Amino acid sequence: QVKDCRVVIDPRTKESRGFAFVTMENVEDARRCIKYLHRTVLEGRLISVAKV
Fold first, then answer.
1. Domains recognised in the chain with CATH numbers
2. What pLDDT does residue 1 have?
3. I need a surface site. Which of 21, 23, 34, 43 has the fewest CB within 10 A?
4. What are phi and psi of 40, to 5 degrees?
5. What is d(CA 25, CA 2) in angstroms, rounded to the nearest whole number?
6. Which residues contact 46 (CB under 8 A, 6 or more apart)?
7. Among residues 43, 50, 47, 46, which one has the least CA distance to residue 24?
């Protein structure tokens, strides 16, 4: 379960900078997200998922 998601916006253009920070409900959900989503394609773009 996703607890929070913050898309990073360029302050000048008001457009997405192409990345976001996602907070998961628990550590196991975060690990599973990294394991299954890292280096997958989302809407035609290769995504990276990592713990920060």
1. 2-47 (3.30.70.330)
2. 93
3. 43
4. -110, 170
5. 6
6. 39, 40
7. 50
